[in-house]
Task: structure prediction
Amino acid sequence: MGLDRRKAAVFGGAFALRLLLLVLFPSLPDLLTGRVEVSTPVTSFKRLQEGLFLYTRNVSPYDGGVFHQAPLLLPIFSLLPTSQAFLFPTVVLYSLIDLLNANALVRISESGWAVSGRSYSATRKHIRWDGVTVAAWYLFNPFTIATCLGRSTAVFTSTGILYAISSAVTGKAFNSMLALGFASYLSIYPALLFIPLMLLCYDQRAQTAKSCPSTAVFALQHLAIFLLSIVGLLGVSSLLIGDFKAFMSATYGFQLLVPDLTPNVGLWWYFFIEIFDSFREFFLGVFWLHLASYMGGLTIRLRRQPLFVLSSLLGIFAVFKPYPSISDASLYFALLPLYRHLFPLMRYTFFAVSALLYATLLGPAFYHLWIYAGSGNANFFYAITLVWSLGLSILLADTIFAALRDEWEHDNPGVRGKDVKQV
Amino acid sequence: MATPAALPPLPFNPSRVRSYVLRLPLFTRLVLLAIILFWLFELQTVWSVVQWGSLIPEEIGIGTMYRLNTYPFIHVGFFHAFLNLLAVTPLLERFEAEHGTLTAVALFFGPLSTFPAGLYILFEKFALHRNTAVTGASVWVFLLLGSEAIRTFKSNPYFSLGPYKIPTWTSPLFACGLVSILVPNTSLLGHLCAIFVGYLLGLGYLKVLVPPEWGLRWVEGKLNLLGRLPHYVSVDQKTYGRYGVLPTTNAGGERATPMSYLGSSQRLASIRKLRSNPHFLFVHLPHILSFICIVAGVVWLLLLPLNDYSRQTYISENALLPGQVHAYFSGSEQHIFRGYKKELEAILTSQTPEGQESRSDEYTPVVSDKIQSILRAAGLKVATQKYEYTSSGITHQGQNVYAIIQAPRGDATEAIVLVAAWKTVDDELNLNGVSLALTLAGYFKRWSLWSKDIIFLFPPDSKSGTQAWIDAYHDMQPAFVQPLPLKSGALQGGLVIEYPFDHRFESLHILYDGVNGQLPNLDLFNTAVSIAGGQMGIGSNLQEMWDHDDSYERRLQTILRGMVKQGFGYATGAHSSFMPYHIDAITLQPKGEGWQDEMALGRTIEGLCRSLNNLLEHLHQSFFFYLLMQTNRFVSIGTYLPSAMLIAVNFTIMAIALWLRTGYYAGSKQSIVTPSASADEKKEAYVETTKSDASTAQPAIKPDTNSIRERHLALPLTLVVSLHLLGLIPLYIFNNISHQYYPSATYASIVLNAVLPVVLAASLTHGLTTPREPHQYLLIKSFSLLVLGLFLSTLATLNFSLSFMIGLLCTPLSFVNRIDPQTTSGPVRYVLSVLGLAFLNVLSPPIVLLGACWYFGVDVETVLTQAAFGWDVWGMWTQVVVWCVWWPAWVIGCALLGFSLF
Result:
């Protein structure tokens, strides 16, 4: 096959750009690490440093209630030189992880599952970008670059998810479940992707294999693999930390119960600041239920396009997660170019993109007015996070509309070009 | 499309109302208009329309006969006018449609007004000997009701109400009675007279007064009234029925009819009209809207100085209690002040070499030591800090001296800063100011009432010293600034004292602008004004407005001066450096020749310190965003922000419109050659390929579903993004070269700016092999304006004035387009684009800079050195906005014109 020149250029360029930014603006990583848009309590690199400090001094990293990330990150990062003194190795590590993610994207794109699956094939499948272009959209997305330089640990979750998908579309169902287990171990929410991912694996198997495996057996097998991988990772973690209960409540308990209401780009923090404490549990349940409910509906409705369900769910998570950051949005934006064939059917792209751009600029400005200048208040920033969520939601709704429309045209070839009404 | 095919039928069909209103005939329209106009006219208070035109029996004479005709148009209030309008419209419309416009004019301006009036006057004046004025169109209502009633009577003589038979001609009398019972202040007699005349009209006795039909026809035919006047009802076409002759405006066609059920207003009709005219909708309307936004933004700003839009200042934070305490700084303190001054003067004379007068006011180590020893002697903790800044090849260095009074009643968590720089903002020796601060230090030390630490800071100059100190206070200092050995708590406020002359002063000039246009809390400014004015009797000035007579012009001038300072974002004094750390600070400058001495200034400062000392929390109550127009008037952000936002929104509107235009509407050149009738169909074809209607009359050009017509985004996006990144190069150059090269760099950039867009256009036109479509030019402009609007609206929340100024300078960019070679012939195109380029070049950033320098009479080198100093030391962001927001947008605007050259 030889070395693909374009791919090498894109990957090399992205890597060089990250290093160039680091060299030109040495204070940029620290600035980005401190931004609430990039770092959330569960992905912050600063908190990881704190945990690492405690870990290397043989104190439980969860003491002090600052560190809330999975324990396996600690031995990995303790191998690196301290980031205070040596910024370079950490940034190189994160850049390499970005390249890995991009590589997974290339594979997903080249498999062609985004345009045609087992029981469905898009009507405009000739309009598509190749893998390198999709990777370039991901690698040169400013949100991705900011996440990379901000060294948010959310990129590891992204890697898990992207590898789970890329393994699934290339027929490595076992690897896929392992990768999803890894992602779910790092931050719980990817577990919600299990069912659509399993369906994707099943479709892949059914398409390539001569005989269809039994659905129930297949599902049980993969559920077992998924659960075992999580159990295995948790087992290793408890060996590492010792106090199993403390680490569970500090990581998963923290992610589920949302006790830290540091501002972020999501919708939860302001709501839970305002809510009366007696209703907190109730609304916590409602919010989680709301987040989880999309999975069932989308999976059933778009059964024939499991990959699209996965992408849309990632977009929904970026809006409705308890601790979202721009890294979640960048993961969603990474998968969107796979659906180049849907773009002609989308109607509000410009408005969604404008809303996102406005939010991107006004968010930091209003945060500055609130926190530093003292002349604004929390409502300024919250209003902008609403705009951000609105932009993402419009984009989501628009792509889902386009996918449904495409499916409809596929089913009814006579209606191509007809007016439709969305009800 | 979201056109519902069938909505449940409404009981009250709005589309009929609309078509009814649209089809009102001419005379009815004029009458309605006249009634509304007279009502609006009555709103003013100077001249009473009712007095002028109503029917007052006593007033009727030869000269006032006009009243017999004017009174039906005049009403005494909104409800009077409104109810009469509702009542008279259907009746009058019916009459006119039946008899023709000319007849209606002749009758209603003649007998049908004057007869009831005459009758009424007859009864009122001569029978009843009263003088009740009547007015309003109700006379016509009852008159027409009367005539209608007679006609009904002819065909249908009786109501049967049980055994009783009521003649139908009495119905107006019942109505009249009901109205006079229910509605107050109605003239029963007037209505009765009207009904009587109406009966006469209905019975045909007034036929003699109707002008002969042949005459009317002749007039009509000669003047071609039917062709000239819209909604005109011809005299002889009444045979076609009441509405048959009326022109229909409903030219939209059948397609849009279901839409009309959605709304009831004329707005919908006009929108539908727009839909059928895409050229207007996508090309003209955005320009109009943008222009309106710009004009509204500017007018909004000009309205601000009016009393209705500005507010009186007030102290919002109750804890401040300005001027409520007695100031004791007087008497013997003056001797101490003079003593310190003499000591400092002695040092100054001693450090002047013989026969050399220059630089005798240098801040030498001797001076610094003297200040330190005085402060130490007063019992304060003293420390020093050395700093050194280099900017544009100039080194600024010095040593700050500062001392802290620890609060007898506090816990060192909060502090107030008093700054007396050795050199004032204008580079004068601030000898009195420093002596006063030293005196105050000793004086404050003796008081036991301080609950906040007081820090006395003596920087050698007003530009860099405070910046170094405040950076180090928050441990944010760069490497070449020493950290502070001695610190106190969170700073709550800062006061800068300047007193650079020896004579007595008249008023206080208060400086309040901070770096990047940040302002201190308005409460601090208000406290200073109120203590100076209320307690000490010292007037205050702001923005160098020495003779402010509170007129509109002066207020506007003050606002504009404030905006210019805020927009440039430079530090206006030693206090400006405090602002980025959210510490409110002002500078007090004595000005003029008067009878206030340094002790009055000292007492003012004492009062201010006492007020700040009272604070329970950081100043937060009052406004942080305001425009001051007088020491006691301001506008707050909610009132003034829309003006900058409107300017920013104009770019966004244009960007959205251009985007829509590239997708929905093929462009102007095709629609020019196609007749407007087919424009609708053509638009349909482009609405979106997926939506293209199968019933469109041109199935041949209907695009195939799979051949997607898409926008080519790559080139426009790349161009816009790379130009914005390219802005970093001039930003770097103008902040980093040595100061003596600034003028030449400016001239070089002017030349480069003139050449760059043309080169860009040429290289893009000839250099690229890919065929470019015309819509790419629109997309380039769309993205560029989108980004510009985005940045400016964000900037408006941070620095209103800068956003406003840049927005105003960029307004031509909304209207600059590539001149299409297919619609404009060669020479015209070249001339137009060269003229446009010349005009835009006048508005290029470096030329605007030169123009501003020439206007303010300052040197370009000084300005740019100052700007680079601001960037390096103060953290000023103005250049970033200029080079990374304004300049790229400007280059793209020029490049669009440049494209039309090739």
